[in-house]
Design goal:
The chain has 704 residues and is an alpha+beta fold. Helices cover 16% and strands 32% of the residues. It is built from 10 helices and 39 strands. The strands form 9 sheets. It has an 8-stranded mixed beta sheet, with helices on both faces. Strands 3, 4, 5, 6 and 7 form a 5-stranded antiparallel beta sheet that branches. A 4-stranded antiparallel beta sheet has the order 8-9-10-11, with no helix packed on it.
Length: 704
C-alpha cells in the first residue's frame, strides 16, 4: 500500500477551573483500504500501517499523539503536585528476599528512588553488605535492567541477564563472585530463558538472531537450548535441544542440585507443558519423557536420586505434589505425597529436610510445613492476611527467607526457622505509613451466570458510603494469574484523597485453580468481562460509588479487559485506563510471542474461535457515534511482549468513534517495554499522569 500522509493538527484545549470541558483536535489517523477475509467474512483493518513501528509515518503519528496527550495533561493544575507526592511516597528503602549461594548471601535493595535495585553481597547476615552489581551504572537513564540471574553450584560465578528499554531480549554476562571481576563472556538473543549451571558452564535458551529492523515485532520461532562453557565464544556453544518440526514451542531447562540430571520443559502456550529428564552422567542417553501433552503443568521441586518430586495439576485442578521414579515414569507408578485440597497449592519448596507448601485460600496465603512422606508437621504463622512472596531456601538449611505484604502492610522480609516454626524480621519497611487509617475487606458478589466472585476493597476508615466515592477498579482475568493483596506506594495518592481501590479476582485467573482459569478462556472469555461488569454494579448497588465515579484499569490481558468492558458498557464507567493491552484479537498471534496466547484466547485461524473473538475484540467493537468514557491508553515503544500496534490501532479507532468531548488519549513511553525493568523515574512519571487523569476525570478535589 502507499504510505499514509500524516497531517498533524494542533491540540486545542479549553479548560476552566469550574469544569473540565475539553475540545481536542486529534492528529489525523489516515484510513487505508486494507481488508482480511476470515471464513467468508470480510474484516476491515484501516490502521494496518500502524503495525510498522519502524516507518516514518508511524513515528510522526506517535510524536503527534504524545503532544496532544501532553497538552491535555499539562492543563491539569495539580499534576506536578501529584508527581511530587508520588516521589515522596516512593522514597523509602525497599528490600528483596535474601538468597544463600556458596559462601555468600545476596539481596537486593533500593534506597528509595533509585531507578534500579542494587544487588548486595555479604558472607553472613551480620556483616556489612557490599555492592556486588549496580544496574544503575549500566545506563545513564536507568533503562538497562537486570533480568534473570544464577550463581554457580560452587558459588564461584554469577551469571546474569540484562535487557535494555524494557525489551524481552536479554544478554547474559558473568562475574567472579569473590573478586567481582567481569569475564569476557557475552551471550546474545536470549529470551524466555533461565540460567542453569552444570560443571564449568550453564544451560540457557535463545532464538536465532532476527532480521534487522524486526527485533521487536517479528514472530519468535525455533526456540533452542544451548550449553555455554565459561570462556568460550557464543558461536562455540553446544546445541542441546531443538525441534524444527514445531517452530512455535518454547523450551526451558534446569539442572538438579546434584548436577546429575537435566530437566527439560516444553510448552506451546502460557499454560501446560511436557516434561523430560536426561541423565547427565551418561551423555549418550537422550531425554526420557516423564509427562507429555500440554494439558497440565509439571514442575520439578526436588530429586532424591532418581526419584523426582513434581508439582502438578494433572488430575488435581488445585495442584498436588507427586513422586515419580524416572526408572518407572508411567502414571501407574506415581505416588501422591501432598494430595489436592480445597485451597490451591501454589508452590512447594525444600527447606531443612522438609517440604514447605505454599497455598492460596480465597486469594490469600497459607503455608504448611510437611515431611517427605506427606505428613503435616505444622502450619506456618504469617503476620496477617496477605501474600507471602519470594520464599528462598535450601534443602539442608533450617533458615529460609520470605517477604510478606498486604494492601496496608508494606513488604517486610523475614528469616524463618523451619525447625522451630518461628519467623523474625530481617528487613522492615521504613515508610511513614499509618495502616490504622485504612480499611481492607474482602467481599463476594454474584456474576451474571450466578458464579460467586471475590474482590478486595481498600479505603480510608472515614470514607462514607454515600454512592459518591471515586473508585479505581482493577482486574486481570487470564493466563492463570492470581491477584493477591500487595502494597503499592503509588496507590496511596488515590487513597489519601478519598478514593476506593478495588481489585477483582476474575475468572481466567488462578485464584481457585485450573477450573477457575479455564472458566475464563477461549469460548468462555466473556465470563471475565461479565465478572468485571458485575463487580462495578455491586459497588454501585452497595453505595460505594456511582457510574461516573468508576475508573477501570488493567494491563496487558487486563488492557484487553478494559477495552472490552468499556465497549460493552460505556455508560457504566467514568474513566478507562487500558495499559499495554491486547486490543486486536484477530492478529495478536502474528507478533513476537503472541502465538503462545492462543491457549487462553483461541485463534482467528479457527472458524468457531474467530467468530467468538470478533464479538469482543476491543479494536473491532468500537462503534462510531458512541460516547465512550474518558480514556487514557498507555503503551511503550519497546514493548515486544504486546506490541504497541495494538494500542496504536485502538487509539486511532477510538478517536474516530468518540461522539462526545470525553478525551480519547494515548501516552506512548519511550525506551520502555511491557513493564519489567522500567526505571523508577519512568514509573513515577507515568503514575503521575495516570492519577492526574483519573482524579481530574472523576471530579475529585485533591488536597496535596
Amino acid at each position: 500500500m502507499k504510505a499514509p500522509i500524516l497531517t498533524v493538527l494542533t491540540a486545542i484545549i479549553l479548560m476552566t477551573q469550574a469544569e473540565a470541558q475539553t475540545t481536542i483536535n486529534y492528529p489525523e489517523s489516515v484510513k487505508t483500504d486494507v481488508n482480511d477475509t476470515y471464513f467468508g467474512s470480510t474484516v476491515a483493518d484501516p490502521y494496518r500501517w500502524l503495525e510498522d513501528d519502524n516507518s516514518k509515518e508511524t513515528g510522526l503519528w506517535v510524536d503527534a499523539q504524545n503532544k496532544v496527550t501532553e497538552a491535555y495533561l499539562s492543563q491539569i493544575p495539580y499534576r506536578q503536585q501529584i508527581h511530587d507526592r508520588l516521589t515522596q511516597l516512593w522514597n523509602y528503602p525497599r528490600y528483596g528476599v535474601p538468597f544463600h549461594e556458596g559462601n555468600n548471601y545476596f539481596f537486593f535493595k533500593n534506597n528509595g528512588i533509585q531507578n534500579q535495585s542494587v544487588l548486595y553481597i555479604q558472607s553472613n547476615l551480620k556483616d556489612e553488605p557490599k555492592v556486588f552489581l549496580d544496574p544503575n551504572k549500566l545506563s545513564s537513564d536507568g533503562t538497562v535492567a537486570l533480568g534473570t540471574y544464577s550463581v554457580s553450584k560452587d558459588g564461584k560465578y554469577f551469571a546474569y541477564a540484562i535487557s535494555g528499554s524494557g525489551s524481552d531480549w536479554n544478554e547474559i554476562y558473568i562475574k567472579e563472585t569473590a573478586t567481582g571481576k567481569q569475564l569476557d563472556d557475552k551471550l546474545e538473543w536470549v529470551k524466555f530463558s533461565g540460567i542453569s549451571w552444570q560443571g564449568d558452564g550453564f544451560y540457557y535458551s535463545r532464538y536465532d538472531k532476527p532480521s534487522g529492523g524486526a527485533e521487536y515485532s517479528s514472530k519468535n520461532e525455533y526456540h533452542k537450548v544451548y550449553y555455554h562453557k565459561l570462556g568460550d565464544q557464543q558461536s562455540a556453544d553446544k546445541l542441546i535441544y531443538s525441534n524444527n518440526e514445531y517452530p512455535l514451542r518454547n523450551y526451558g531447562v534446569q539442572t538438579t542440585d546434584d548436577e546429575k540430571y537435566l530437566i527439560l520443559g516444553e510448552s506451546e502456550s502460557t499454560s501446560g507443558n511436557a516434561l523430560y529428564i536426561k541423565d547427565l552422567k551418561n551423555q549418550s542417553n537422550d531425554f526420557k519423557k516423564i509427562a507429555d501433552g500440554f494439558r497440565f503443568e509439571y514442575s520439578v521441586v526436588h530429586n532424591n536420586g532418581n526419584t523426582f518430586y513434581i508439582h502438578t495439576n494433572d488430575d488435581a485442578p488445585r495442584y498436588r505434589l507427586i513422586a515419580v521414579s524416572i526408572d518407572k515414569p508411567s502414571r501407574d507408578n506415581w505416588e501422591v505425597i501432598i494430595a489436592e485440597q480445597d485451597k490451591v497449592l501454589q508452590e512447594v519448596h525444600m527447606a531443612g529436610g522438609t517440604f514447605v507448601a505454599q497455598y492460596m485460600k480465597d486469594a490469600t496465603s497459607k503455608v504448611n510445613v510437611i515431611d517427605l512422606s506427606g505428613k503435616l508437621l505444622h502450619e506456618m504463622e504469617l503476620p496477617g492476611i496477605g501474600t507471602l512472596t519470594g520464599f528462598r531456601s535450601k534443602e539442608k538449611e533450617e533458615t529460609a527467607f520470605y517477604a510478606f505484604t498486604s494492601f496496608t502492610f508494606p513488604s517486610t522480609v523475614y528469616a524463618y526457622n523451619v525447625k522451630d516454626n518461628s519467623s523474625s524480621v530481617l528487613f522492615s519497611s521504613e515508610l511513614d505509613f499509618d495502616s490504622k487509617s485504612y480499611v481492607s475487606e474482602q467481599v463476594f458478589f454474584t456474576s451474571k451466570d450466578g458464579t460467586k466472585v471475590p474482590m478486595f476493597i481498600v479505603h480510608k476508615a472515614d470514607v462514607q458510603m454515600d454512592g459518591n466515592n471515586p473508585v479505581y477498579l482493577y482486574g486481570y482475568g487470564g493466563f492463570n494469574v492470581s491477584l493477591t493483596p500487595s502494597f503499592s506506594p503509588s496507590r496511596l495518592v488515590f487513597l489519601e484523597n478519598g478514593g476506593i481501590f478495588v481489585m477483582v479476582n476474575l475468572r481466567g485467573g488462578g485464584e481457585y485453580g485450573e477450573e477457575w482459569h479455564k472458566a475464563g478462556t477461549k469460548l468462555k472469555k466473556q465470563n471475565v468481562f461479565d465478572d468485571f461488569i458485575a463487580a462495578a454494579e455491586y459497588l454501585i448497588d452497595k453505595k460505594y460509588t456511582s457510574p461516573k465515579k468508576i475508573a477501570i484499569a488493567g494491563g496487558s490481558n487486563g488492557g484487553l479487559l478494559v477495552g472490552a468492558t468499556m465497549n460493552q458498557r460505556p455508560e457504566l464507567f467514568g474513566a478507562a485506563l487500558p495499559a499495554v493491552g491486547v486490543m486486536d484479537m484477530l492478529r495478536f498471534h502474528k507478533f513476537t510471542i503472541g502465538w503462545a496466547w492462543t491457549g487462553d484466547y483461541g485463534s482467528s485461524e479457527n472458524e468457531e474461535e474467530f467468530r467468538y473473538l470478533l464479538k469482543y475484540s476491543p479494536l473491532h467493537n468500537l462503534k462510531k457515534g458512541t460516547c465512550y468514557p474518558p480514556t487514557l491508553i498507555t503503551t511503550a515503544d519497546h514493548d515486544d511482549r504486546v506490541v504497541p500496534a495494538h494500542s496504536f490501532k485502538f487509539a486511532a479507532a477510538l478517536q474516530e468513534a468518540q461522539s462526545c468531548n470525553n478525551p480519547a488519549l494515548i501516552r506512548i513511553e519511550t525506551k520502555a517495554g511491557h513493564g519489567a525493568g522500567k526505571p523508577v523515574s519512568k514509573m513515577i512519571d507515568e503514575a503521575a499522569d495516570v492519577w492526574s487523569f483519573i482524579i481530574h476525570n472523576l471530579g475529585m478535589k485533591p488536597t496535596l
